[in-house]
Design goal:
The structure holds two protein chains of two kinds. Chain A is of the alpha/beta class. Chain A contains twelve helices and 14 strands. In chain A, the strands form three sheets. In chain A, strands 3-2-4-5-7-6-12 form a seven-stranded mixed sheet, sandwiched between helices. Helix content of chain B is 47%, strand content 8%. Classes of the chains: A alpha/beta, B alpha/beta. Chains A and B meet through helix 3, helix 4 and helix 5 of A and helix 9, helix 10, helix 17 and helix 18 of B.
Chain lengths: 326, 410
Amino acid sequence: MTTMTIAKAINEGLRATLTNNPKTLLMGEDIGPLGGVYRVTDGLIGEFGADRVVDTPLAESGIIGTAIGLALRGYLPVCEIQFDGFVFPGFNQITTQLAKMHSRSNGNLTVPVVIRIPYGGGIGSIEHHSESPEALFAHTAGIRIITPSNPHDAYWMIQQAVDCQDPVIVFEPKRRYWLKGEVDTETAGLAQDPFKAHVVREGTDATVVVYGPLVPVALAAANAAAEDGRSIEVIDLRSISPIDFDTIEASVKKTGRLIVSHEAPTFGGIGGEIAARIGERAFHSLEAPVIRVGGFHMPYPVAKVEEDYLPDIDRILEALDRAFGY
Amino acid sequence: MGATHLPSTEFDGTELDDQLEAEAEAALGEPSAEMVQLLGPDGTLGTDSVFSEYAARLDAEKLRGFYADMAAIRRFDQEATALQRQGQLALWVPLTGQEAAQIGSGRASQPQDYIFPTYREHGVALTRNVDLAELLRQFRGISNGGWNPKDTNFHLYTLVLAAQTPHAVGYAMGIQRDQRLAEANRLSDSQPAEPKAAVMVYFGDGASSEGDVHESMVFASSYKAPVVFFCQNNHWAISVPTAVQTRIPLSNRAKGYGFPGIRVDGNDVIAVHAVTEWALEHARQGNGPVLIEAFTYRVGAHTTADDPTKYRESSEEALWRAKDPLERLEKYLRSEDMADDAFFEKVAADGDELAAYIRKSTYDSDTPDIRAAFANTYVEAHPLVAEELAWFEEYAAGFAGEDTAEGAGH
């Protein structure tokens, strides 16, 4: 067991995959000598050279597009998109090309590209640096989306993303990059399926599903609720596409109440999808409608008011009050 | 006729700057004097300071082969158009007029090269030995691909314009790494090296406006990737003329990226072959990318859903028909006694045979099953896909015993 931050855990995970697989290469803006704007790739160009840690031109479509070509040639590219709000120049390549290549080639071609995207708010940043666009990608078949919430998952999930033969987007909770935690780099962390949710706190009265940056928030809300005598189960979704509905269903059949919270706007979001599916699977177990706690239907607001936009402990507690009020 | 403007391997920006003004003045509707042409519309062979050497590599047999290829793909094009008119294909994208640009460039590629087409490169597909019957599967609605690119190093058609250009550059970056690794791992100098490879990517004058072309050229230039950008300027992006896409010859754009750009007569199969062979060798030898602009013309419609009479004059089409790539090569072959009537009769008969094969293959083609789409969405097992497939199977089973043509799942 080693204690490290999420940023360091991803760095170590990338180092491991670069060491273990000569076909892995990293590409992105400022990921070389600078080590990325969040220093996630710090030191890697020195160890593995410029052929494998590639500082690219400032062009996201070009990054994703050339990664597709490298993958067609047998490489395992890991692309860094500098910030969530800057992925959109590459959106066309991700949705029309990367996601469809295996299908449109009738299974003949695989494009195991990994795209790392720091996402989410809460860092007081300027426009386009605080967004949560995961639902836009989850709607696209052919790609997988995972998001670690702690250093141990971060270390292993980035490696599992590289090992996966499908394209994988890894949304990294940027406001938790400096969150420290224990990482077990020795034993088979690989045995944990990256596409399965984890119950991170057991409870009996209500279930709160969260992922990425909101996992610590939900855990804090559950602790606060416990003081009111409510036993809250918290699920870290870990995978946004596919979603592990089995784990959520089992929890809801036990607790009877479900809150889903994410920073992304609720409209057309992951919470709505979970609500609909759980509504079908566990209708008779539900004591209350599934309640979503998320961003509003507006462009991500200016930093000085993001506190009012982001789900926090109180908003999750308020949602729990509503769920218990039915 | 001269290609003295051709940038050498050692790129000289100053020299190119001097030429920019002159070339910009060249009317876009007519090729500039700087365009590389060897075989003129009258069927006489000219000379070029750089490319005559490449043309000299072509013997009579190869030239007859070029003619046979161009005739075959034109016949194929006619048959596919007919099949669309008869409702056998949802859509067809005709190539007539562009045979020389495609056969000349495709025949310059080597087996180890990898080709990324747009969606009109039926002639290039022929040169890469793609089964032309498989090429029609996409247009019949049976497949979004139709062939396995790994068999021929001819990638699937890409319908999102220019989206394949960065793929080509990435593939070329992979070749660079493979070659560096192979060189490092080579046991001794006596061990033969793998043949060097390059990538060629096709796009059109319309797609040249897409941002992906720009980003691709930046990447290719920065990393000196072994890629040839082959732009067929066929003068029309559906209904919009080239002048709306560019105010200078497209080949000039290469200068801005710092690599050679060559405009070639796209209806001259000998010149196209020579220029492409030069460019691919340039790329394979590690000298970086090249842009080729093949100046040609889409004689037919954009697709079978298009109506060119609404946006261009038939006199313009007639002008270009007079520059027909097949006719000029036929004139040359006959004038040099490289081919006789028997040859051209054989080519025509082979074309009819190909057409019959295409027609039969289309009629006989299998019916797709949506289960293949479930199977190929992801490589690895996916619970949502599995769940939806299970639902579908149960739903389809409810129709068991009914006429299968009406039932679900067919």
